[in-house]
């Protein structure tokens, strides 16, 4: 109860200091990898995509715009010496232009970053920062303009930190001299808060905020204690120690990378209470369990301090652990590929099988529903292609967001592998399969939907049963058909239900094929009309009395399915791809 009331009182206290304006959208033009992009924001946002997709450019643009605007207001000057910029991602400012180096003319190459938000009275507010080459050598021009009184003042307030930028793995120095608050503030404003981390902890102690940091961390990693050893009159260096769950205290730089990063991020937000926390690829070298803790940390900080948090990441673990309200944005070539976060998050949670491709590579990736993974892997092994073809599983590959996610993830790999999307046929017609797969086909993927109802059906064919139980082909044919006849009415009902689902999905305006034409009433059931999942279970039970006992039909590769997969690979041009052993 005490911890609940602590959190509640902290939230209330922070909310009293929250801005009357909240930024809901960022527009960035002509900055590094970005030509033009508009990003709608939630409280916690994850930018994902391949290398050079523009993720880091977003963070750098936000931080640089705020930094330049603040310095311009403080100096009351429109043109600033480049050498005095508090933050710049490059030593040559003009080269930040996407189209061309920044120029000194209104119609020339300029970087533009616009913050759009809402006031408490629902008024839409915006504040634009333009950066360009100053007339004199080594100078930077800054134009500031806004549409709502006070919005720009909040961004440029010299007494507060609009954004804190945490680039990459932010290691800390082994030793750190005492610095005053102004020096610490300037280092943090320049994206180098990690270099004054111990001083940040010292200032938090002097402000009686260490318990605040410890309480937030306790919600994430359990009880912990931060100790500071520093006497301003005697000590040149600041020493900080850390302990967990009553354990031994150790110097802060000897804690694990994951814990150190969590403490850093929480400390920065507790001290500076920024409007924006910008974190660049915090997942590097972190164990998956620590990445999940990071997601929890971001949610907690946003709740307590009202900060808008923007994180770039390559990690499926971090995105999978994101809260339901987090926004996930896929970026490619400086543009938004998709921001349908819920479907995308479910794909990313299942992307784990792609981890092996980072080291082993693949010429082809087969994406399938979970039930089909083992059967397809057996086919790949049977074809002797396990080194070149990888099978990964997804839940519900059925929408545009999934196709975008798969394509974007595959583009992380240099060899541009062939992508095959497998799904059960479920009694769909060829035309319906083509409509279902259009989102994938339009992105140069291949749809593989074998003609039987589902992948289990291929472990029920007479050929497969005869091979597994080493029986005569005619005997296998008779046995399978007898089991199909026993469940014929159940299979017909399943067929009708699946056709009803297909008609609702693909024929909303009418014109669907007549179900009775597809399976006339006067015709019996056969393997093409059987529901494989049910038939497989029945066959395994029926065959348990065979000589030698029961043999799991799914444990053996289906020759029929393997032949169909080989044909699909051939049609996709897989066998035209040269296999370089040295590239694996």
Automatic annotation (TrEMBL):
InterPro entries: AAA_GajA/Old/RecF-like, Bact_Antivir_Def_Nuclease, P-loop_NTPase. Residues 502-522 are annotated as: Disordered. It holds the Pfam family AAA_15. Residues 22-64, 207-319 form the Endonuclease GajA/Old nuclease/RecF-like AAA domain. CDD domains: ABC_ATPase (cd00267). PANTHER family: ATP/GTP PHOSPHATASE (PTHR43581), ATP_GTP PHOSPHATASE (PTHR43581:SF4). This is Endonuclease GajA/Old nuclease/RecF-like AAA domain-containing protein. It comes from Alloyangia pacifica. The lineage of its organism: Bacteria, Pseudomonadati, Pseudomonadota, Alphaproteobacteria, Rhodobacterales.
């Amino acid at each position: 109860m005490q911890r609940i009331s602590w959190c509640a009182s902290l939230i209330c206290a922070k909310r009293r200091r929250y801005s009357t304006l909240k930024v809901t959208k960022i527009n960035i033009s002509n900055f590094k990898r970005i030509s033009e992009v508009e990003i709608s924001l939630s409280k916690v946002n994850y930018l994902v995509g391949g290398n050079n997709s523009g993720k880091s450019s977003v963070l750098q643009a936000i931080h640089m715009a705020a930094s330049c605007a603040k310095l311009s207001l403080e100096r009351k000057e429109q043109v600033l010496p480049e050498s005095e910029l508090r933050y710049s991602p490059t030593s040559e400012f003009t080269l930040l232009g996407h189209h061309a180096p920044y120029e000194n003319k209104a119609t020339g190459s300029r970087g533009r970053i616009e913050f759009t938000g809402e006031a408490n009275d629902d008024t839409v507010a915006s504040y634009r920062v333009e950066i360009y080459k100053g007339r004199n050598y080594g100078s930077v021009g800054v134009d500031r303009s806004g549409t709502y009184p006070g919005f720009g003042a909040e961004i440029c307030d010299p007494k507060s930190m609009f954004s804190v930028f945490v680039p990459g793995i932010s290691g800390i120095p082994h030793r750190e001299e005492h610095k005053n608050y102004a020096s610490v503030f300037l280092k943090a404003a320049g994206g180098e808060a990690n270099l004054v981390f111990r001083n940040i902890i010292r200032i938090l102690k002097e402000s009686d905020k260490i318990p605040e940091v410890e309480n937030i961390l306790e919600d994430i990693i359990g009880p912990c204690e931060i100790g500071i050893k520093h006497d301003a009159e005697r000590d040149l260096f600041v020493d900080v120690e850390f302990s967990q769950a009553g354990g031994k205290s150790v110097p802060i730089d000897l804690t694990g990378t994951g814990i150190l990063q969590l403490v850093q991020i929480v400390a920065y937000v507790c001290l500076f209470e920024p409007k924006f926390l910008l974190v660049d690829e915090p997942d590097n070298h972190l164990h998956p369990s620590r990445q999940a803790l990071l997601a929890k940390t971001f949610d907690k900080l946003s709740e307590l301090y009202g900060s808008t948090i923007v994180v770039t990441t390559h990690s499926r673990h971090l995105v999978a652990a994101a809260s339901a309200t987090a926004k996930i944005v896929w970026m490619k070539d400086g543009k938004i590929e998709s921001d349908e976060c819920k479907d995308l998050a479910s794909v990313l949670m299942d992307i784990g099988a792609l981890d092996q491709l980072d080291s082993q590579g693949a010429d082809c990736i087969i994406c399938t529903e979970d039930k089909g993974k083992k059967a397809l892997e057996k086919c790949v092994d049977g074809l002797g292609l396990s080194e070149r073809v990888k099978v990964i599983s997804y839940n519900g590959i059925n929408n545009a967001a999934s196709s975008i996610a798969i394509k974007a993830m595959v583009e992380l790999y240099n060899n541009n592998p062939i992508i095959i999307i497998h799904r059960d046929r479920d009694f769909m017609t060829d035309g319906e399969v083509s409509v279902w797969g259009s989102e994938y086909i339009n992105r140069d993927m291949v749809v593989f939907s074998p003609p039987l109802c589902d992948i289990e059906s291929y472990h029920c064919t007479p050929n497969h049963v005869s091979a597994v139980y080493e029986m005569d082909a005619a005997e296998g044919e008779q046995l399978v058909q007898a089991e199909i006849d026993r469940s014929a009415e159940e299979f017909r009902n399943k067929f009708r239900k699946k056709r009803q689902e297909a008609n609702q999905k693909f024929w909303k305006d009418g014109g669907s094929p007549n179900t009775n034409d597809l399976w006339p009433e006067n015709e019996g059931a056969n393997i093409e009309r059987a529901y494989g999942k049910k038939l497989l279970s029945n066959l395994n039970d029926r065959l348990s009395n065979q000589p030698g006992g029961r043999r799991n039909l799914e444990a053996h590769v289906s020759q029929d399915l393997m032949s169909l997969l080989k044909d699909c690979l051939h049609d996709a041009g897989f066998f035209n791809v040269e296999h370089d052993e040295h590239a694996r």
